[in-house]
Amino acid sequence: MTDADPFVHFEDLDSELTQSFIQQADAAAQAEFASSDEYTAVRDDIVTMLQDEQQIPFCQEHRARMYHFYQSAEFPKGVYRVCSATSYRAGLPEWEILFSVADFDSLLNDDVYLQGVAHYVQAPEHVLISLSAGGSDAAYTIEFNLAERKVVEGGFHFPLSKSIISWRDTESVWVCPAWDERQLTQAGYPRQVWLMRRGQSFAEALPILEMAAEGMMVNAWRYLDSQGAPIDLLEAAEGFYHKQYYQVLADFSVKPLGLPDDCELMGYLYGQLLVQLRSDWQRANKSYPAGSLVAVKLHKGELGAAELIFLPTETQAIENIETTRRFVLVSILDNVHSRLLAWHFADSRWQEITLPNLPEGALEITDQPWGGDVVYLAISNFLEPLTLYTLDIHLDELCVMRRQPRQFNPQGMQVRQFNAVAADGTFIPYFHVGKQIGEDTPTIVYVYGGFAMPQLPYYLGSIGRHWLARGYAFVLANVRGGGEFGPLWHQAAQGINKHISVGDLLAVLHDLYKHHRAVAAHTAIQGGSNGGLVVASAFCREPQSMGAMVCEVPLTDMLRYPYLSAGSSWIDEYGNPENSLERPALKLLSPYHNLGDLQHYPPALITTNRHDDRVHPAHALKFYARLRQLKQRVWLAAPDTGGHAGGGTQENTAAELALIMNFLYKTIVNNDSI
Prior knowledge:
The chain is 19% helix and 34% strand. By secondary structure, the protein is α+β, with helices and mostly antiparallel strands. The radius of gyration is 25 Å and the shape is globular. The chain starts with 15 loop residues before the first helix and ends in a 5-residue tail after the last helix. The relative contact order is 0.10.
């Protein structure tokens, strides 16, 4: 295939040709995989599980009140509700509905879904509601008063856009606007920062910072410090991993902070910035290694003394950082297993403290109520459902709050961790889950491998219920490009080396087959977004190494990706096709450009969502069209609603999962000649 693009017209989503093509393709996929009794049974069962009233209601706690977004058959778009912390902890929550998402459809004259609710933590009845249009990243922002249960008249309301709005205090907000082309970077994100006070129009707001349109995006926020005064910070990102930080001073001037341009600010406590390093930082004759967490004193834009808090080993990586009233919590991965650590600032230095023993599993900090030392922890593993804990760090107390009901019987199932060997000799870990391990066992191999995001052993839920319970197997591949082992693990498969993620996935497949844990005919590879790129590239490189592919909301055209939707924001991750050194590597990686005329490919299911404004649907459409042109067995699922993260209702989610399951049943389980 030459650089001339025969399907470039699919980049125009509004054209009748594109719309007709999507509708016909989706109808064919629905007819093939969503019309059987088995599909209906799986879909309805998943809906039932999602709407089970015994599911844990994950909440935000503010001033002893628990706020929860709830969806059900009665409220498919969901409601935002509240109960007292006392009734929640007693297991008998007395819910009051604060607003219904569906009510905003008529107000905004649009089909909207809840994207988020931002409380001002010191006065939590003040919220900014983000309402996505059709599931897209673009959203309306509405100020709502929860005490009065109504939209604030003349409040902080902003039009549909990818704007970033955040509370400064109850009377002002930081606004990074994105509803006018003049406000946007080339990636379609905000490039201006404004301070807007209550009662002002946007024209009356105070401009603070503007970056060049060639950058990626700006952001602004306020850090509250329970041990001192708040600070206002700005971020101007040139790319995904390179940014400049500024402090907004009392006179609203901005002062650049002398931090490394590839670090991440993770918190602020005791007047110190918590900085996670991606590369070594040499400062004041002292070196702070890549991957470490460093605390740096800050005073009026000037950095003071720095102290190393935590340095991961070769098998470790920092996953998340949270501050409480008096402590810094760090969740780490150690050989892809979660651990939790904590530090307290005393006697002018950071001192590690001992925490209660936690169960094995993937750990997530789900909430940290402002002003205290309690955190909510969700812990699960492949076979054990989520348990919600409260951890009071100050009192050294760990309590069980809720246990998620089982979705499948794990009896006879095992979790094993193996290592494949990549082409360069690197060990690539992967988890194998199932009752059986052998060549006749249908096996899903799931991968992501990008943006330093680790893939963890979370509870498998619907997969466990509709795949593992049938005696089939699931494999999670921890390939390079992810964040399982710190910055170097990610950087090894970044830019012109992105192909290494693909090689690692193929190494996992080869290891499965070499040790008779699976065979290609009964193995499907699956990934979404960046993972969709990885599986599609592996599919093109070695189609004989798999029996099917599920490629969800993928990137596939790596020569045009920077010009589609938010694509230019990912140049740090993939490289630039306009760079003469990087373009050849991108062309070799690009699935769309590596489909061979004489090649035979296994069955493929590609998905996209018509409201996806992050990864442009043209990636999926063009890849599908090219495979159709080659007369391959390929289907495209593209529902009317949903964005990059999927559907907006539980029914939408269940329908997509059931369709994928049915595709897998027909291909790698039954080997139907579809």
